[in-house]
């Protein structure tokens, strides 16, 4: 801000990735395009922008902060026109932005232009895509995730699956739950979510697996893959009875899984035995 302390409103350098600006498309202050076009790659520059050029900054900042938190910047705005959002009694959820919205002021932008990409070479985040762009991106993300998984790059594979799920979920939110279009999208989400759960199993994120597989089974109770993965997650967190129940149901639905389930049950039995011995050693003599 243009006060004596140059009060900081936002600093994208403290976030996981740099701020991204798509020239000529969505989510921007018009003045930013003029700024960027005057810069060279690798340049650092400071710009003082007068009040008329930054009236919309509180709204833009709110969206930036939501994106940094992994949220959809448009949540809560689907049924509001832009004008309503500018009313003085409307809260953006951030006191500093509320104050700036009520009392607009000139702002200073200090920008480092890290990289310039050619048109068509940049894949947008799901929130910035059109519906068709999201649909087109899903099979590509799925394929990239599978390739990374085969290479053993599990975290990156999980990220690809998650991104594809986000594209489909944002489309599904526009449909009536249970409608043919909603169900069609859900059938696309389920295999991606199972792939994501497989990654989380390998990463040891067992409670995430339990949560997602349970969500699948609440809708599709006979999904064998969800039962098997949830059984493995239950076994990993010592829920022996729940694991046995899921494994038994999986074998009932697909008898060919019997050898694999037997192997998992043997592994679980060994882990439970080791845990019992550890507990006995830990508490031995504690009451003497």
From TrEMBL:
Role according to the record: May play a positive role in AHR-mediated (aromatic hydrocarbon receptor) signaling, possibly by influencing its receptivity for ligand and/or its nuclear targeting.
Which PROSITE patterns does the UniProt entry name for this protein? Answer: TPR
The protein's location, in the record's own words, is: Cytoplasm
PANTHER family reported in the protein's UniProt record = AH RECEPTOR-INTERACTING PROTEIN, ARYL HYDROCARBON RECEPTOR INTERACTING PROTEIN RELATED
**Where are the TPR-type repeats located?**
224-257
Q: Name one GO cellular component term.
A: cytoplasm
What GO MF annotations does this protein's record show?
Answer: peptidyl-prolyl cis-trans isomerase activity
| Quaternary data | Interacts with RET in the pituitary gland; this interaction prevents the formation of the AIP-survivin complex.
**The keyword Ubl conjugation is annotated on this UniProt entry:** no
* UniProt protein name: AH receptor-interacting protein
Among the Pfam families in the record, one is PPIase_AIP
Which parts of the sequence belong to the AIP/AIPL N-terminal FKBP-type PPIase domain?
Answer: 3-115
Q: What are the entry keywords? A: Cytoplasm, Phosphoprotein, Repeat, TPR repeat
Q: Which InterPro entries match?
A: AIP/AIPL1/TTC9, PPIase_AIP, PPIase_dom_sf, TPR-like_helical_dom_sf, TPR_rpt
Broad class of the protein's primary localization: cytoplasm
Q: Which domain of life is it from?
A: Eukaryota
